[in-house]
Design brief:
- This protein has helices at about 10-25, 40-50, 80-85, 85-95, 160-175, and strands at about 35, 40, 100, 105-115, 120-125, 130, 140, 145-150.
- The protein has two domains: about 1-50, no CATH class; about 80-175, no CATH class.
- Strand 6 and strand 7 (about 140) form a beta hairpin.
- The chain is α+β, with helices and mostly antiparallel strands.
- It has five helices and eight strands; from the N terminus they run H-E-E-H-H-H-E-E-E-E-E-E-H.
- It starts with 8 loop residues before the first helix and ends with a helix.
């Protein structure tokens, strides 16, 4: 990006600083939008609009959302945070750091996200699997993370999975 200002680094940095200083306090570029989507001079916008074929099919634009909107977890008048009893949240937070078996694997409770209504577990493998980067190359070892919904979105009660998890975690306290 600095090459837009000069070939030498020092000159390019100085040019970039001048450019930024000139832009401070200037009008936002969005005020120059034409038709709510085109940004540029009048000749530029006219060239772009001439390229658009008005008879082209709009098949790639969905007529309705791809999936229905999610229904509220516990009712329109109550948020997830309000629905989860504060005593339950305190009880769950005392279990953070404890291990238990879930779906045949050992997990450790690492967080309670009361705002999202989730319990977060981390796999407790001695040698976690190798994670891949965005290109499929081996990157690093990292434990798997699992999120469990605390409340059933329909009934507003603890999910069965969460009940089992609490029982398992509390059994480690008694042992």
């Amino acid at each position: 990006m600095l090459r837009a200002f000069a070939e030498r680094r020092a000159d390019a940095v100085a040019g970039d600083r001048r450019f930024v200083a000139e832009g401070i306090g200037a009008a936002a570029p969005w005020s120059g939008l034409k038709g709510q989507i085109d940004l540029g001079s009048e000749p530029c916008v006219e060239r772009i609009q001439a390229l658009i074929n008005p008879t082209r099919s709009l098949r790639e634009i969905p007529k309705h959302p791809c999936r229905p909107l999610a229904s509220p977890a516990v009712g329109a008048d109550m948020t997830q945070t309000q629905a989860i009893d504060t005593a339950l949240i305190r009880r769950l937070r005392t279990l953070i750091g404890h291990r238990c078996e879930h779906d045949g694997q050992v997990w450790r409770l690492i967080d309670i996200l009361s705002g999202e209504g989730l319990a977060v577990l981390e796999s407790d493998l001695a040698r976690p699997p190798i994670q891949m980067d965005q290109y499929g190359r081996a990157s690093h070892r990292a434990n798997a993370i699992l999120q469990i919904r605390i409340l059933d979105p329909v009934e507003g009660a603890l999910t069965l999975e969460m009940q089992d998890l609490i029982d398992c975690l509390e059994s480690t306290l008694r042992a």
